[in-house]
Design brief:
Elements (H helix, E strand, L loop, with lengths): L1 E2 L6 E5 L2 E4 H23 L7 H27 L1 H6 L14 H19 L3 H8 L4 H14 L15 E2 L7 E2 L2 H20 L8 H17 L19 H20 L6
Parallel strand pairs: 1-4
Antiparallel strand pairs: 2-3, 4-5
Amino acid sequence: MLVYPKIDPIAFSIGPLSVHWYGITYLVAFILFMLLGRWHIRRRPDLAWTPQQLDDLLFYGVLGVILGGRLGEVLFYQPGYYFSHPAEIIAVWKGGMSFHGGFLGVLAAMWFWGRRHGKGFWEVTDFIAPLVPTGLAAGRVGNFINGELWGRVASADLPWAMVFPHVDPLPRHPSQFYQMAGEGLLLFAILWWYSRKPRPLRATSAVFLIGYGVLRFAAEFFRTPDPGIFTWITPDITTAQWLCVPMVVIGIVLLVKAQPDPAR
């Protein structure tokens, strides 16, 4: 059985400025996006993207991730707490970023960027879909360092079961690493392989929606459920799982519609 190593959330300080590990993982996510994006441009010249467009797109994406992720945490998971403590809404360095909120924020940012630069919405989302999962993986490392989003109680016989002393003395699934491996590394491998050659418009975006939705839905069975706005429906299905259902449904519809017409 493993024991969670208490990690100082502050990586280092320079005078009065403290740099948090959580912020560093976001920086790593953005750097990976840039590196993989340039690689993707080189291997798929038919996409007609430039490094300059990628740089500009990242700026919009960062705003979408941070604003959408935080608003999603506030509105989907803990509205009562944050409305009672409004000053905490801006304390993003303490953790608390909703993927589904960040996802919606990025979609809005990509739509706005596409309108300004003459690229269609699905053209943009198909391009960025393979670049996103490694950032999700980096974020889960940040969750582990912060000692948050721990897993459900596990059998003491599970070799990698971990005790989080700041929670209780029970062995738990290190669900942060499950999600890092699933919706991070595995989803990246699937999308990177799938996008290696031309696909119908919307198809790559559809695979992302289906893949993330399924993998996150599965991971929730090992993660301690977060309180959320849908917990009143059933205690057996978490808020995140409810939010994943429309992702999968929309992804399936998009994938079907994206297939080339066999009659042509």
